[in-house]
Amino acid sequence: MTGPAPAGRPPRVLYITGWMRSGSTLLGNVLNEIPGVRHVGELYYLWRNGVLGAGTNSSCGCGSPVRSCPLWSEVLGELPEGTVEATAHRVTTLQQALLRTRHTAARLAEARGERAPAPGVTELLDRSAAVYRRVAALGADRLVVDGSKYPAEAAALLGRRDLDVRVLHIVRDPRATALSYRSAKAYIDPMSPARSSGYWTAFNLASELVGRTAGGRYLRVRHEDLSRDPREVTARVLRFAGLDDESPVDAAGRIPLGANHTVTGNPDRLRRGVTQIRPDERWRTALPGTAIAAATAAAAPLLSRYGYPLAPLRPALAG
C-alpha cells in the first residue's frame, strides 16, 4: 500500500476505466447532477491539455479555458507560484513512463504490496491524491468521478490508503466504438476497425485484471444497458459508489444537465438542458460488413463474455 494513512474520511473517487467512446462522459455528467458529486472528466489530461495546451478539446466543461476556470484555477493555485508548467511537464513525463496499459500488472503488484513502487510512482500518485483532495474540498465532498480510463492508473490508485477508490469498468460493443473512430473528429484521430478493436481488447483485459485485485471495489456495466435502462444502471452505480441518492434520471430516460467542470472528454460534456438517454446502434447499418468483420475478429475473445454476439444481426436481415 502507498500513501500516508488518512486523517478522517479520505476522498471517495469513482475511477472509470475501459476503452474510449464507452459512454463515460454521459454517465459522469449524470452523476454530476447529484449534490456533493463532481465529474471532473478525464483528469489524466489536466496537465497535458489543460495546463500545457498540448492536446485537443482542452477547455473546461464550464466553457472557460481550464487555467482560468474558477474551479481549476483554485486547484492549480495550490502549487507554488511559478511551478505550474514545470509540474505539468513532470506529471506528463511520469504518466507516459508508468501508466501505459502494459504497466497495469506492475502497478497492481505495487498496490498489493508485493513489490516496492517503481521510481516516480509515489510522486505521481501524491500529485493525483492532492488534486482529488482539493476537488473534494471544492464541492465534491461525497464523490469525485474521474473518467480517465487508464487501467494502469486505476491499478496504482487502489494502493492508496489516503483515497477511497472504486473502479467502474464500462464496456461497449466494439463495433459501435469502431464506427465512432472511423472518421476524423476535432478531438480524436481516425482509427481502423481492427485497430480500434485491438485497443478495445487490451484495455478491457487490463481493466478485468484491475477488477481481480479490487474485489468489491470493482463494478462492470455495459453501455447498452445504461442506454436502455439509465435509471436502473445509474442507481446501481450510485449504490456501488457508496451513495444512497435516487437516480437523477426519470423513468423515461430524461435528465436535465447543468454546468460541469470536466477538464477534457467527449464534446457532449458541454451539453446543457434536458437530455434523452437512448440506445445508439447506428453501427448496425452505418458500418460496412467488412468493417464489422474486422472489428469483430479483433475483439472475438471477449465478445461472449460481455454478452455481445459474434455474428450481430443487421436490420436488413431481420425478420
UniProtKB/TrEMBL annotation:
Q: Name one GO biological process term.
A: N-acetylglucosamine metabolic process
Superkingdom of the source?
Bacteria
Q: What SUPFAM superfamilies does UniProt report for this protein, alphabetically?
A: P-loop containing nucleoside triphosphate hydrolases
Question: What InterPro entries does this protein map onto?
Answer: Gal/GlcNAc/GalNAc_ST, P-loop_NTPase
Annotated GO molecular function terms are:
N-acetylglucosamine 6-O-sulfotransferase activity
Name the record gives this protein: Sulfotransferase family protein
Organism equals Streptomyces termitum
